[in-house]
Structures are given as C-alpha cells and as structure tokens.
C-alpha cells in the first residue's frame, strides 16, 4: 500500500495538486471535506467507512478547489480523535491513497507515508485565492484574503502542535517540499507524479 500525505500552506494549491496527483497515479483521494463527511456518516452508520473506501464513495463528493474558510472553528479534541479513527480505518482497507492535511503524515507515521509539503510566496497565494473567490457569493478584498490566509495557517500550525508536538511546515518532517509559486498546478502535478513513480521504483 502506498500512502501520500500532503500538508500545505493555505492558497498554495496543495489541495488541487493532491486531486490531480490522485488522478495521475490512480490513487484514492481524501481531503478535509471528504473526511468530515465520512466522519459524520460514521457516527450514524455502522461499517460506513469500510463501505465508503471499498466502493470508492469518495468519488461522489463534490470537489471544489476553493476554500470556505471553515478552518476558523476552534480545535476540538473529539474531532481530532474521530479523524484519526477514520484515517486508521482507511489504512486497513489497503488501497493506495493521497490524504490532504489531517496531520496524516504523523498520525500514520508507522505506515511510512511519502510526505509532501506545498508552499508558495504570500503574494502568489493571495492571487490564487482571489481568483478562486471570483464570482462566489462572498468576495474578499486582498486585505481580507491575506488575513484569512494567515488565520488558517495559524490554525493548522496549532493543530499540528497539538497532534504531534512538532512544528508545522518544518522541512525535516517531509520527503518532498514543493514551492508552487511559479508553477501551473496541472503541470506541477504531472512532474510530481513522475517523481513519485521513480521514488517507488527504487
């Protein structure tokens, strides 16, 4: 079983990269949106996780490459425990997969995942977020977008520290760090897929 985990700065394109990478490699794909839906269903339906993974139910969840800024809620231990349980059950199914966020790289450390971190210059991240927000019900000024980016990054850093005691984005915690600043995400996904194929051949 091959597991790829992707941590990312908000607005770096890491989520879109992960989805495109999953398509390139024919891996299953899990992100915050999908994990939250599985966690909610799990609470009400016995055996839901096993069924969802086995029958690729993740493909039925709509994927959008923008963010609703839902990370603003406080860190809840119960949510972290539930997500950990879902991650462990996904691993039990033994399917190659890409997992976005969730601190999956540390939670699943014993599975020896290939750990990626995606970053970008702040200006590039603001531009990407502004482009994704165009035409949406709620539009943000550049100043608001910058504030949201910093807030979400802070939340991710706090969650990382709570889960592992380690520093979020610390370079020695990853196998590959990608700076997406000057990349088109589709091209970066193809290049990364080629690198990963070579990695697993060795």
Describe the protein in words:
By secondary structure, this protein is α/β, with parallel strands linked by helices. The protein has one domain: P-loop containing nucleotide triphosphate hydrolases (Rossmann fold, 3-Layer(aba) Sandwich), CATH 3.40.50.300. Helices cover 51% and strands 11% of the residues. It has eight helices and five strands; from the N terminus they run βαβαααβαβααβα. It has helices at 14-25, 32-44, 48-54, 77-92, 104-107, 122-133, 142-164, 185-201, and strands at residues 3-8, 28-30, 97-100, 114-119, 176-179. Strands 2-3-1-4-5 form a five-stranded parallel sheet. The longest helix has 23 residues, at 142-164. The chain is globular. Mean pLDDT is 82; it is low at 55-63.
Q: What would you call the structural class?
A: alpha/beta
Q: Unreliable stretches, pLDDT < 50, 5 or more residues?
A: 55-63
Q: Under the CATH scheme, which architecture would be assigned?
A: 3-Layer(aba) Sandwich
Oligomer: single chain
Mean pLDDT over all positions: 82
**Rg over alpha carbons:** 16 Å
Q: Provide the CATH topology.
A: Rossmann fold
Going across the biggest sheet, name each strand in turn: 2-3-1-4-5
At the fourth CATH level, what is the homologous superfamily? P-loop containing nucleotide triphosphate hydrolases
| Total domain modules | 1
Largest sheet: 5 strands, parallel
Order of helices and strands: EHEHHHEHEHHEH
Helix content: 40-55%
CATH class designation: Alpha Beta
Number of strands: 5
Number of helical elements? 8
């Amino acid at each position: 079983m091959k597991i790829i985990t992707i941590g990312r700065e908000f607005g770096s394109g890491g989520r879109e990269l992960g989805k495109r990478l999953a398509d390139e490699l024919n891996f299953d794909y899990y992100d915050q949106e999908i994990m939250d839906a599985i966690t909610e269903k799990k609470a009400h339906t016995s055996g839901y996780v096993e069924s969802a993974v086995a029958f690729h139910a993740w493909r039925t969840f709509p994927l959008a490459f923008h963010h609703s800024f839902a990370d603003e809620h406080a860190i809840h231990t119960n949510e972290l425990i539930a997500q950990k349980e879902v991650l462990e059950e996904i691993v039990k199914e033994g399917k190659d997969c890409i997992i976005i966020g969730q601190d999956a790289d540390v939670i699943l450390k014993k599975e020896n995942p290939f750990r990626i971190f995606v970053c970008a210059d702040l200006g590039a991240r603001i531009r990407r977020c502004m482009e994704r927000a165009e035409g949406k019900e709620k539009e943000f000024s550049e100043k608001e977008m910058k504030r949201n980016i910093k807030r979400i990054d802070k939340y991710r850093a706090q969650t990382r520290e709570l889960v592992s005691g380690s520093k979020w984005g610390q370079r020695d915690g990853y196998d590959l760090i990608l700076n997406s600043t000057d990349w088109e995400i589709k091209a970066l996904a193809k290049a990364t897929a080629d690198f990963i194929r070579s990695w697993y051949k060795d």
